[in-house]
Design brief:
CATH architecture: 3-Layer(aba) Sandwich
Shape: globular
Helix content: 10-25%
Largest sheet: 5 strands, mixed
Protein name: DUF3052 domain-containing protein
Organism: Verrucosispora sioxanthis
InterPro entries: DUF3052
CATH superfamily: Vaccinia Virus protein VP39
Pfam families: DUF3052
Number of helices: 4
CATH class: Alpha Beta
């Protein structure tokens, strides 16, 4: 596979590229509602196939978590996302951008992610109304009891 595989003809990285989603990956989705970004979902399903829901028994490579202010406890949601996640998997926390209904303060993410055993490595523009925070397991976090 070339370094440009999956990139648009103009050289701009596709949404699936920005999210690191590859063909054959199993991607779980949590928090789906009618306000999610359909372009992002379409780009990801075009790349990896159908998204699985949180009732899956499969080990997943990535979890998309759509989360809005008022959706419940972020820490608990992130812990639930870790259950089926592969050791080298990634959680994409998708939140409404500043000024949009349901915006989540970055301080809430900064507090909840480490408590759940995750660390934020980057953020991406996930669409017109959504931002994505890439969260990965801290070294040794999943195996600890």
């Amino acid at each position: 596979m070339s370094a440009t595989a999956g990139q648009a003809a103009d050289g701009v990285r596709s949404l699936a590229d920005r999210f690191g989603i590859e063909p054959g990956m199993v991607v779980m989705e949590m928090g789906y509602d009618d306000d999610v970004d359909s372009d992002l979902r379409d780009a990801l399903t075009d790349r990896c196939g159908d998204l699985v829901d949180e009732d899956t028994d499969e080990v997943v490579d990535a979890v998309l978590v759509w989360y809005r202010d008022g959706d419940g406890d972020l820490f608990e949601l992130l812990v639930d996302a870790l259950g089926p996640l592969a050791d080298n998997g990634v959680v994409w926390l998708l939140t409404p951008k500043a000024g949009r209904e349901g915006h989540v303060e970055p301080s809430e993410i900064a507090e909840s992610a480490p408590t759940a055993g995750l660390q934020q490595t980057s953020t991406v523009n996930a669409g017109k109304d959504w931002s994505g925070a890439r969260l990965v397991l801290r070294r040794g976090a999943k195996g600890k009891k």
